[in-house]
Amino acid sequence: MIDFALQRGRGGSRWPRPAAGALLLALLMVFTTACASASTAGAGPGSESGETSFRASPDQNLLYVCVQDEAQIAVIDMDTREVVHTIDLMELGYSERAQPHHVVVEPDGSAFYVSLIGADRVVKFDADHQVVGEVEMETPGMLSLHPSGDLLLVSRSMSAVSPPQRIGLITRSTMEVEELDIFFNQPHAMVVGRSGEFAYTASLSVNQLASVNLASERVELVDIDGPNHAMVQFAVSPDGSLMAGSGEMSGQLLLFDLSENPAEPSLVNSVEVGHMAFDPVFSPDGSRIWVPVRHTDEVVVVDTESGEILQRISGDGIDAPHQVLFSPDGSTAFISNNNKNPHAMHGPVEDDGGDGAVVVVDVESGEIQRVLRLGRNVTGIGTRNAP
Question: Which domains does the chain have, with CATH numbers?
Fold first, then answer.
């Protein structure tokens, strides 16, 4: 373990910014309002009026889905399993190469945040799905919300060959960013512990993770045993005692203990799940860990306590699976799928023959219930649960 004192620098916050895209959006909104005033009916999302805003009802459970190579964010009603809205980033002034990659949602549903790899931005949307803030950050990757504070933690994209050895600490209320030195290459995995005391990131190129004390911003580096892992992402158990990590190169699910010393996570188990293991997630009760495995087009379900593989879920639509999230009651899993050459990692590549999808799976049986085809390279997902 190596302990480093704080080293940080001010990042470029660029909201509000007098950009051409923002001016274009403002003119578009004026035009839309004028058209709506001249019509007799209030048009909804996707109508001929060109209305871009969309406010969900308070009782809707929503899934936000990054359709990376389409520069879109799809909004799915998790109960009806229908797409209810699509945010087209090009209509908001971003380029076709914006590459929305990961999304996280405020617990009260008041806002959500999306990393745009190609635009070098982290963007904040309000409950009406309008842009209300953005931060400039080179090749942002994974996002994690502080559970009680005002921070949003941001790592770097896998597609960045040599990104800064820093993570972003964004103040959500002001959308200002500071960048914290992590001291290893390609910090990609990102999660905040349940207590909010520590955040964790890991390198794609060396077998190291970093714990960050968010009060003091002190960084400690911890070596990870085993073959070259290329740690993709972390997840913390509901009780906060364990952290799961996925090794893209090693094909292992790694389990770390956080209860003894959260500043130095200790490796307590590893499970061979398959090459190109991606974003793991604990089931709502913490008894299982679901791991997308891109190389074999499967989602592997692992018993948390024993490490036994309980199930391998595959079938229609599960093609280079990327991330898994659950419905509020835990009965349904929503799986995002790139449907791309698994060696493409996070960058745009030649299409693998069809659109990526969100696949809806019954948790108890593992049966596929629905496949929602959304577009090229479906990646990160986030949920807004009704109160």
Answer: 246-314 (2.40.10)
